[in-house]
Amino acid sequence: MRLISLVPVNTKIDFMRFRKVAAILSLVLCVASAGLFGVKGLNFGIDFRGGILIEIRTEGPANMSQLRSNLSGLGLGEVQLQEFGQPTDVLIRIERQPGGEKAQLEAVEKAKNALGDKVDYRRTEFVGPKVGGELIEAGITAVLLALGAMLVYIWFRFEWQFGVGAVIALLHDVILTIGVFALLGLEFNLSTVAAILTIAGYSINDTVVVYDRVRENLRKFKQMPLYELLNLSINSTLSRTLLTSVTTLLALLALYLFGGEVLRGFSFAMIWGVIVGTYSSIFIAVPSLVYMNLRRSGLIVGENDGDDAAEAGKSA
Amino acid sequence: MVYFAKWKIVLVAIVCVLGIASAFPNFLSEEDATALPGFLPNKQINLGLDLQGGSHLLLEVDVASVLLQRREGMVDSIRDGLRRGTPRIGYRRLGVRGECVGFDLLREEDLDPARRIVRDLESNTFDPTLDITTDGLSITVCATETGSREAVSSAVQQSIEIVRRRIDELGTREPTIQRQGADRILVQVPGLDDPERLKALIGTTAKMTFHLVDQSNSAAASCGPGRRRPPGTVCLPSVEDRDVNNEPIMYLVKRRVMVDGENLVDAQATFQDGQAVVSFRFDAVGARRFGDVTRQNVGQPFAIVLDKKVISAPVIREAILGGNGIISGNFTIKSAQDLSLLLRAGALPAPLTVLEERTVGAELGADSIAAGEFASVLAVVLVIIFMAAAYGMFGIMADIALVLNIILITAVLSMLQATLTLPGIAGIVLTIGMAVDANVLIFERIREEARNGRTPISAVDSGYSRALTTIIDANITTLIAAVLLFQFGSGPIKGFAVTLAIGLLTSMFTAIMVTRMMVVVWLHRRRPKKLPL
After folding, report:
1. Residue B478 in this model has a pLDDT that exceeds 80
2. How does the average pLDDT of chain A come out, rounded?
3. I need a surface site. Which of A267, B85, B188, B233 has the fewest CB within 10 A?
4. Cβ atoms within 10 Å, residue B498
5. Count of domains in chain A?
6. Whole-angstrom Cα distance, residue A200 to residue A148?
7. C-alpha separations of A172 from A24, A200, A208, A277, B373 in Å
């Protein structure tokens, strides 16, 4: 049986040659993402903005214009209607009502009265202003803590240069994910934050595998120039990097296509994150080590065997 | 040398058997699972509200109202205490002053007895709950932080009790009612067809009082902006009745509470002359008071007030002595039932605000499960095919490990009785994709070592040992993300963190122990000259 293989044996792609192009490309994309975030902003879901979300199923295809006119007469401010997965399902978003929590509850009741008993309420969510603010806070805290904790862990297991490189790659992935959400106007909600944290985990996971090889090679090939050594490390882990990305993408694709409407945003973010994360491990995380004085730190690789032995003992 | 310790084989076997036994009940119906013999595990995975359908409500107790009530209660108690003092203690201007309660004494010699009276109001705790300051003849009593916290805490406890009673009356199964933080209550009610009714029931304070209506002044002349109310009266709107301008009709009622709903022992919805009404029964104290008031005020209207709104104000025809009465109003059968339910369960100590609601219909939940199941199965099939194509026989070993991995995730979820949510299913699907990573790392390494000229056995050996640190490093970072998600995520997201973390741990176990065992056994049996990798 012939096995399929994504990467031919003994690949010697000069990834490091692309480091400047990749750095510029990534920088441009990050700046563009930040710009989009600043100018266009994110389409925050009710989790963060507060407001009301009602998913209904009508008998037969939904009459959107009828529904819209029924709801817009209520004076509830901005009301968005969207077909959700199939013609009978409609997702209704009502903006946060001025006033406190009571006002939101009354709006839910008004909307339900206007829609009548004919429709089937599949989902009703309402987030008051207070909780929305708290959820934003918790989301930001979680992402920042995750970045910090990963930096510390890598620092502890490797050297500070690796920690910084990994976090640069990580930030890159997070920023680009936020950017694509701003660009496409996709709803940014709690599950997007979950996706971002998972992307962070995945991206670090990917980076660590290559870094591990860099560390090993640094010990093994003491005379090899760093440029070559990094290239070798990327190439020898390339097959694994791509294979794992493919299996993960296969699973995510199944989720995206058949996992239902509710999970679509999450799986989209994850698919994007896996692609970006794979790219950044190879083109950002590893090349960044070149700029951080890795060899001269002397902690990783000593010029004599004594240091090496000490290092071997340390890493055991 | 490639060697797999006996105890490890035993461990793998035990984990596999336990895993399969624990995961098994999930493939049965609920009845069949509970009918399993006692020595077998019979716990099924707990489905989150987003999968089984139900309502999630986050409520907040109105702290300001709790503290205000406490101050008002203190005013009453201080008044009582001062009046009962012998010799009588003269005072004036007793009332709520901002965040505190204050009064002025008339004579200086009353300072000490007055302070003692106030001190006696304190609850028995180590920390003082009241802070008493004197300025000349003026005494100010403030709640200390401990005092306020205690008041809020007991109001929350009491609210939880009342909410539980109300929900129990609805007859739903297994509601979860938990305290969250200082002043919040989380209510989770699975499988409910009318969330609006639940919200209405929880959102009503249901404080019922009976008041006499002021007959000497008309409500029209006394109520409304710029009009003066006679002392000791209050204007309350009607619940239902509206005037020509569609404004609620106002009642001018005496402020004094004649009988309190606290004294009710039972309330039922019934019919009177074809109209839905609520019949109620007082306890001994309530019955006596109710009897006294009705005897003394025959011919006068008697206002029944619920949460500062007048339900109705029927004229007392005769003294009602038995402690039984009837509330009539514009009730439908349902609203009469709801009111009697609220009265039976008792009043909330303070209003509750709904901060967050997430209600999922059972149908959407079922759809989500079906979609999740399909996506999971498809993901498994795709990954299995891909792994077999990429690594041949080794891939198939990894595939066996993958299936075992999913069984183990199911087993751990069932054993821990963790809640599986829709994002949790996403976590499982993601794990399916990522779980093979450990095996990919190992196989790639073995391949590489073999290419460098090692014998199959030595390649396998060093492949496993070298990949191990990488696997651990890589997985711990993802685990960090999962832990933080659990810590800061709410409801469904927590479910995602749980399955992600469990999936990582089980995938490490299956990759390091299970596939390794298979590879080692195969090596020993076949003693191949070349690895089929």
Report:
1. yes
2. 85
3. B85
4. 25
5. 2
6. 11
7. 12, 10, 16, 9, 33
Q: Is B195 on the interface with A (CB under 8 A)?
A: yes
Residue A138 and residue A119 share a domain: no
Please tell me the distance from the alpha carbon of residue B338 to that of residue B329, in angstroms, as a whole number.
13
| Residues B231, B219: Cα–Cα separation, whole Å | 13
Q: Name the minimum distance, in Å, from the CA of A238 to any CA of chain B.
A: 10
The complex's ipTM works out to 0.85
With helix as H, strand as E and coil as C, how does B128-156 read?
CCEEEEEECCEEEEEECHHHHHHHHHHHH
What's the pLDDT score for residue B126?
67
State pLDDT tens for residues A214-240.
989 988 888 888 889 999 999 999 999
What is the C-alpha to C-alpha distance for residues B525 and B533, in angstroms, rounded to an integer? 17
CA nearest A176: which of A32, A297, A71? A32
The domain that holds A287 is classified in CATH as: 1.20.1640.10
Question: Which residues in chain B have Cβ-Cβ distances shorter than 8 Å to A246?
Answer: 386
Q: How many CB pairs under 8 A join A and B?
A: 236
A98 and A175 together in one domain: no
Q: How many CA atoms lie within 13 A of B192 on its CB side?
A: 29
* Range(s) of the domain holding residue A67: 51-127
Set of chain B residues whose Cβ sits within 8 Å of the Cβ of A194: 423, 485, 489, 493, 496-497
AA identity, residue B207: K
Q: Are A121 and B194 in contact (CB under 8 A)?
A: no
The predicted-structure confidence for B226-253, as pLDDT tens digits, reads as follows 788 888 888 999 988 788 788 888 899 9
Q: Is the pLDDT of residue B410 over 70?
A: yes
Q: A75: domain CATH number?
A: 3.30.70.3400
Query: Closest Cα partner for B220 from B184, B239, B186, B247?
Result: B247
Helix, strand or coil, per DSSP, at residue A259: coil
Same domain, A190 and A141: yes
- Best mutation target, B52, B197, B355, to test chain A (most A CBs within 10 A): B355
A134 CB-near residues (< 8 Å, 6+ apart): none
CB-nearest to A250 from B383, B447, B478 is B383
- Contact flag A127-B496 (C-beta cutoff 8 Å): no
Residues A149, A236 within the same domain: yes
Q: Decide: pTM greater than 0.90.
A: no
Pick the last residue of a domain from A74, A108, A127. A127
Same domain? For A148 and A265 the reply is: yes
A 10 A CB-CB count for B266 gives 13
A48's CB contacts (< 8 A; 6+ apart) are A132, A135, A136, A139, A188, A189, A190
Based on the fold, state whether residues A192 and A109 are members of the same structural domain.
Answer: no
Q: In A158-225, which residue ranges form alpha helices assigned H by DSSP?
A: 160-184, 190-220
| B406 — pLDDT class (breaks 50, 70, 90) | very high
Best of A258, A267, A271 to disrupt the B interface (most B CBs within 10 Å) is: A258
A190–B437: do the CB atoms touch at under 8 Å?
no
Around B417, how many Cα atoms within 13 Å sit in the side-chain half-sphere? 3
Considering the domain architecture, whether residues A66 and A113 belong to the same structural domain is answered as yes
Give contacts of A 165-224 with B, CB under 8 A: 190-191, 193-194, 197-198, 200-202, 204-206, 208-209, 212-213, 216
Whether residue B451 lies within 8 A of chain A, CB to CB, comes out as yes
Contact B259, B240 (CB under 8 A): no
Domain assignment present for A105 = yes
The C-alpha atoms of residue B114 and residue B159 are separated, in whole angstroms, by 33
Asked, for residue A6, whether it belongs to a domain, the answer is no
Cβ of residue A263 closer than 8 Å to a chain B Cβ = yes
Sheet holding B352-360, edge to edge: A79-84, A86-94, A51-57, A120-127, B352-360, B54-61, B184-190, B176-180
Q: What is the dihedral of CA B469, B475, B477, B480, to 10 degrees?
A: -130
